[in-house]
């Protein structure tokens, strides 16, 4: 009667990540296109307001009408958006980020290995030849010897 349907369409983590990356890139490009449309419409509106209708035509900044400055500043912001979406994300995408993380991890491992060598050099562990000279070390080692799993009834009382 009632049976649980098993989801046969299993998507592994890598495919899901590729899908999410593609979805984000598509959304970025869509927003860039929307930004361009709004920029174009607002630029045309500013030109019409100033030149055709004469709205605030007496305002001049450094010898240019105000709409020129609005278009230049907004155009600069649009160029930054364009470079960020199409150039920076292309060259500095997921693969670039993964490579940078791998490089940093390798550097950290290298530093840890150097520190480990320095610690071993500065504070060497006592070896068995040194333990013969110090009988208290042998006694301590015998007292704290681990119990063998093969012999659970092993008694460490000395």
UniProtKB/TrEMBL annotation:
Biased composition (Basic and acidic residues): 140-158
Keywords recorded for this protein, A-Z: Membrane, Transmembrane, Transmembrane helix
Polar residues biased stretches: 127-138
Domain of life assignment: Bacteria
Disordered, as annotated region: 117-158
Residue span, 2TM domain: 20-105
Segments crossing the lipid bilayer: 32-54, 66-87
Record keyword Transmembrane present: yes
Protein name: 2TM domain-containing protein
The organism of origin for this protein: Zunongwangia mangrovi
């Amino acid at each position: 009667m009632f049976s649980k349907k098993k989801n046969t369409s299993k998507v592994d983590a890598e495919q899901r990540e590729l899908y999410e990356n593609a979805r984000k890139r598509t959304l970025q490009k869509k927003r860039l296109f929307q930004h361009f449309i709004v920029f174009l419409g607002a630029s045309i509106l500013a030109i019409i307001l100033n030149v055709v209708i004469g709205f605030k035509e007496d305002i001049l900044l450094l010898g240019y009408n105000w709409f020129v400055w609005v278009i230049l500043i907004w155009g600069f912001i649009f160029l930054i958006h364009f470079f960020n979406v199409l150039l920076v994300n292309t060259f500095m995408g997921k693969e670039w980020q993964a490579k940078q993380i791998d490089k940093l991890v390798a550097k950290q491992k290298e530093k840890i290995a150097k520190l480990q060598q320095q610690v071993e050099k500065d504070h060497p562990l006592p070896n068995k030849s040194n333990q013969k000279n110090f009988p208290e070390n042998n006694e301590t080692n015998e007292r704290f010897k681990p119990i063998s799993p093969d012999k659970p009834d092993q008694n460490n009382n000395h």
